[in-house]
Amino acid sequence: MMGNTIEVNPDSQRQSVADRVSIIFKTGFSEIKRKGVVTRLYFEIKGFEKEKEKYVHALGVRAWEAHVSHPDLAGILVHLKELQIEMNRLKTQYGEHDTQIKDIDASKADLTTKFNQDLDQVEEQIVPHRKRIESINAEKEDNKVQMEELRTKQDHLSQQIREHQQAIQEFDLADAAEKPAGIQLEQEAIRLIHAQKCEIDCKIPLLISKIEKLKMELAKERSLIERLDQDKETIRRDFEQRINDYNQQIQQLEDKKKQATRQMELYRKEMEPYLYDLGWKVEPLRLEERAFRENYDQLDRLNSEVANRNKLILEAESLSRAMDRGAWTKFLVVSGGMALLFVGAVFALLH
What we know:
Blueprint: H1 10-65, H2 74-173, H3 179-285, H4 293-322, H5 325-350
Helix pairs in contact: 1-3, 1-4, 1-5, 2-3
């Protein structure tokens, strides 16, 4: 008895392979799509959580400023109070330094006013001496002019005497009858001129003496002005020294203010994590519900957004667990092989 032979339909076999390949690729693309969605959802959750950190911190700040109290917050509040006490101490120091600087600035202004007044007083003392010097110089110049005029006149008279002497010599050599009378007239003229010269000779020493006295007075006035100028210089040096001292004090206080500011900034940064923790603690406790309503609404919205994304992720992951693992594995193998073939082809074309 001959056995029955089962014939396999080639078309049916090809259809079965095509269906299997179709299932593999559908499964693979669906899984890739789900993983893409899950990745996007995780990124969105991360963004919401980052945004939530900001609102949690804001809630912590408001809670701290509102002086909330609860046993669960005791540890955080102790740290914040300690830091706040230090910050308040530094703020007080900063204010004291600022007040000291203002006081020193006021002292500088007073000192500058007094400095200008002292200079004005010394300058007022100098003014009469300068005027006196101008007067002495004018008088001295006038005496010099007079003396030059007298000397010029003296030279002119000497010239006249020489002319009369020349005339006498001429009369002396002549035999004219009027010789004695002519000589007598010339001698009389010479006598009169000598009288004028003697008068001038007496005036010139007096003028020289006046000029010398004026020089002495001039030296005295200049000496007085020099002494007063030295007083001005002393006042100026004292003023500059005291201003420099004030400026050094201000610089030291400014440095202390900067140091206090830096330290306060460090304390603020040190407070940040505690304020953040305070916000996390206050949110579930729902303290000061009305006062913090806006903060709670913002956080509730973000929590709802995160919960919705987590729900979608859970659904996607559930579908991934329920898929045909064999089909997914074969898709990865086929995709990897095709990728390798593509890379190999590109490499061959390039080389």
